[in-house]
Design goal:
Layout lengths: L4 H12 L16 H16 L2 H4 L15 H14 L8 H11 L8
Length: 110
């Protein structure tokens, strides 16, 4: 974790806030950089902002737009299907709509 600058900075941050899990050999954040950013942002929002600051629309808009490449989404959805991660009960309408837009046939025989 101290080979890469970003993970060493995050490990130092965690250690200074009382989490010594970054010093273990099996550190789970090493291969998931978005999780590093999400955890830091969540901690800042929860512990370091006052309640009136959390309601600022400029900082925390109700809608966040995200661009994703169509081909990358198709590859990831197919990979999730191959790994068996797609067949859950979470968000069924959203998943069916996404499959229709991506023109992917879901195998319902499983």
């Amino acid at each position: 974790m101290f080979i890469d600058f970003k993970t060493s900075l995050f490990a130092t941050y965690l250690f200074l806030t009382g989490d010594s899990g970054a010093l273990s050999n099996n550190w789970s954040y090493l291969n998931n950089p978005p999780l590093l950013k999400a955890q830091i942002l969540a901690e800042i929002e929860l512990f370091y902002l006052l309640p009136h600051q959390r309601r600022w629309k400029e900082w925390f808009p109700e809608i966040i737009y995200y661009y994703a490449n169509f081909d990358d989404i198709r590859k990831e959805v197919k990979a999730m299907m191959d790994r068996g991660e797609w067949n859950t009960n979470a968000f069924p309408e959203l998943k069916n709509d996404l499959l229709n837009k991506l023109n992917i046939q879901q195998n319902t025989a499983q």
